[in-house]
Amino acid sequence: MNRRTFLALPLATLAQAPPRDPWVPTPYAEVERILDAVQLQVGERHLELGSGDGRICAAAARRRARSVGVEFDHGRVLASQRPGYTIVEADFWTMDWSTFDILTTGDISDDLRPLVLERFRITAKNGARLALGHALLTVRGLEVFVQTDETRLRR
Ligand SMILES: C[S@@+](CC[C@H](N)C(=O)[O-])C[C@H]1O[C@@H](n2cnc3c(N)ncnc32)[C@H](O)[C@@H]1O
């Protein structure tokens, strides 16, 4: 956006613009539900898209998965480094998703959900599973599941 275009935007539009990167970590109980939803198995390759403080990678590592987090915030990358999993400082859109068995996002904004889902469908390997958000939507290959506390429904 050039300066002229920016200045032409109504102030109300700018005031309503959502923050680009609100960091809302996933509650720990939800972390376990996410990993249950994708049925993470020992030795599987896990990728956390936007790993924040690394809590989902840590939980995946406790389940003895081979977990990688990708995070573009330098401070969060430094603060989340722990033995047992790997945190890569990068933009997750630039990464190859095709070598992973399980992909998770933890908390994710509504506008990113369809983009992540589409990228997953195009590039993930056969049999890969995706937990998009707080275990509400789980994808295995091209099958989409909606999960609530009590039910697991095939869409
Ligand atoms: C809402 S937080 C969630 C953190 C963690 N996944 C969780 O659920 O606790 C989203 C995180 O994704 C990171 N992020 C957003 N877009 C990213 C991108 N394109 N590449 C890498 N990291 C990204 C942000 O810096 C932030 O730490």
What report would you give on this structure?
The chain is an alpha/beta fold and 155 residues long. The protein has a single domain (24-154), classed as Rossmann fold (3-Layer(aba) Sandwich), CATH 3.40.50. 31% of the residues lie in helices and 22% in strands. The chain has helices spanning 3-8, 11-16, 28-37, 55-62, 74-80, 113-123; strands at 45-49, 66-71, 86-89, 102-104, 129-132, 137-140, 143-147, 152-154. Strands 3-2-1-4-5-6-7-8 form an 8-stranded mixed β-sheet, sandwiched between helices. Helix 3 packs across helix 4 (55-62). It is globular. 30% of the residues are buried. Bound molecules: S-adenosylmethionine.
In short:
With 155 residues, the chain is of the alpha/beta class.
What is the assigned CATH homologous superfamily? Vaccinia Virus protein VP39
Second CATH tier, the architecture: 3-Layer(aba) Sandwich
Total count of helical runs of at least 4 residues: 6
**Poorly predicted ranges:** 1-20, 148-155
Strand content: 15-25%
Overall mean pLDDT stands at 80
Helix and strand arrangement:
Layout: H1 3-8, H2 11-16, H3 28-37, E1 45-49, H4 55-62, E2 66-71, H5 74-80, E3 86-89, E4 102-104, H6 113-123, E5 129-132, E6 137-140, E7 143-147, E8 152-154
Parallel strand pairs: 1-2, 1-4, 2-3, 4-5
Antiparallel strand pairs: 5-6, 6-7, 7-8
This protein binds S-adenosylmethionine.
The site of S-adenosylmethionine has 21 residues, from α4 and β2.
Primary descriptors:
alpha/beta, 155 residues, disordered N terminus, binds S-adenosylmethionine, Rossmann fold, eight-stranded mixed β-sheet
